Amino acid sequence: MSHQPFENWLFSDETIDPEDSEALEEHLKQCEQCLELSTALDQVFETISTAKTPEPSPGFTQRWYQNLAVYREKQQERRIWFFILGLFTLACFILLGLFFINLSNFNGSYVLAQFAANVSLFATRLNNLLKFAKSITRAFPILIPVSLTFGVGLLSVSFALMITWFSSIIRLYQPVQERG
Amino acid sequence: MNEQEALWIQKALQGDDHAFGNLVEEYQKPVFSLCYRMLGNSKDAEDAAQESFIRAYRYLKKYDPNRSFATWLLSIAAHYCIDQTRKRRLPTISTDSLPAEIISDRNAPNPEREYRQQEKEVLIQNLIDELNPTDRAAIILRYWHECSEVEISETLDLTVSAVKSRLYRARQALAKSYIESEKSKPINERRAHESPAF
Q1: Is A116 within the bounds of a domain?
Q2: What percent of chain B is predicted at pLDDT more than 70?
């Protein structure tokens, strides 16, 4: 048995003319499947029409004022971060500008030689520092675990600070979370 | 939009939080109700309704006074709830609809009838939860908020014909799911007005 156009009439929101309505009723008397659908739809809409409207718990507006205050705080924080980031970007631009201004007086071989001299100076100083550390630890072996602990601690703190910095930058670019 | 509302909006635009607070007071019920029907539980509905009002406050400058404020507000809430529903990867079970919590008021005139009505409401809510978020929003706006197809199209940023086809599809899905859920009910469940002894 064909269920069209009856099924369309059943599920459409349009009002059907009296002739079609009669035809639908006739079809429903003969077709169990469409009758079942029609009854189910009636049941659904009867329940919807008699359903209680859920209401928020008392004090909704007060809670909204609190959330608004939180939202404003976050906005303020965001503005401060943008200001800091803006200053940082400006400083970078100024440094880059200065670099490009100096570029006109650029002498490649001189800069390279200076760089090599600086690296060797740094290596010498580092070597001296290591020698000094060795002589100290030979004289006082107890200093080895102490300096190791201090070094590891310093590295951990630096790492934690770097992670905090990165996460702050990431949070800054995320949309504002007004709640909590 | 009535004059009082227009005045509140104007004052809110000038930075008067209490004027916007009046709008929150006025529209908290329809917004919360929409969020509740979309998300299926009070906690998420409260969060979504609060967030919707914060967003409305934030974007109030973009509000077009020629448009209905209620439609604009419901549009913000509906879009937020649709996003939230899409973000949910796992289906959630509504704690509000657990049988223990829907036991009706014992002082009600007909507690059994009341209980059955609430049971049906839970069933309908579960059927609505199975619809896709946009169809769900269309059905909720049409039947709980009595919005016209044009208003729904404005609220959900859809064409009127898209709203019609979504409503058609949703009604069909609801009827079919209702039949299936009725068939899957335990046979030994006592019918209304039937004696507990039989």
Answers
A1: yes
A2: 82
Q: Is the pLDDT of residue B135 over 90?
A: yes
Number of domains in chain A: 4
Contacts of B51 (CB under 8 A, 6+ apart): A178, A179, B80
The verdict on residue A1 lying in a domain is no
Range of the domain at A41: 6-50
- Residue B97 and residue B43 in contact, taking contact as beta carbons nearer than 8 Å: no
Which of B54, B96, B129, B139 is most worth mutating to test chain A (most A CB atoms within 10 A of its CB)? B54
Answer yes or no: is A66 within a domain: no
Q: All domains of chain B, ordered by start, with CATH?
A: 1-92 (1.10.1740.10)
Task: Tell me which of A159-168, B107-116, B121-130 is least confident.
Answer: B107-116
Question: Encoding tokens for residue A141?
Answer: 């072996």
Amino acid occupying residue B191: R
Peptide bond just before A54 cis, omega within 30 deg: no
User: Does residue A69 sit within a domain?
Assistant: no
**Chain A residues closer than 8 Å to B143 by CB:** 45, 48-49
> What mean pLDDT, rounded, does chain A reach?
85
The answer to whether the complex's ipTM is over 0.85 is: no
Single-letter amino acid, residue A17: D
Given CB atoms, is A168 within the 8 Å cutoff of chain B? no
Q: Do A15 and A41 have their domain in common?
A: yes
State whether residue A61 sits within 8 Å of chain B by CB.
Answer: yes
Q: Which residues of B touch A (CB under 8 A)?
A: 17, 21, 24-25, 28-29, 32-33, 36-37, 42, 45-47, 49-51, 53-54, 57-58, 117, 120-121, 123-124, 127, 142-144, 149, 164, 167-168, 171-172, 174-176, 178-179, 182
The span from the CA of B13 to the CA of A116, in Å, is 64
State mean pLDDT over B152-178.
Answer: 92
